[in-house]
Amino acid sequence: MTLYRARHSITTSLTAECAEHLARRPEPAWQISWCPERLFSHEQASAAMELTELICELPCVSETAWQRAHAIADELKIDLERACETLRRRRAERGEL
Q1: Tens digits of residue pLDDT in 26-48
Q2: Of 12, 53, 58, 78, which is least surrounded by CB within 10 A?
Q3: Residues 42, 17: Cα–Cα separation, whole Å
Q4: Phi/psi of residue 28, nearest 5 degrees
């Protein structure tokens, strides 16, 4: 599991999902590819991308990782079940599954 952080983006080694910084906006100014209806702070965007990786590794994650996924989802007020469904659908559409 690896996140790649650049000045204006956060990507992951497991999927094509990303977080992008929207130029010339005050925080929150980060948009997550699979959750475009909300904007996040940089810290939240990093957590959302960590959540993305955890979900993409399902069902092969440990109990500790699953607890971390729940904690991140709760912190970001993201419905974890819906996030799992959304990411699975998007990965299937891209042929990643």
Answers
A1: 889 999 999 999 999 999 999 99
A2: 58
A3: 16
A4: -75, 135
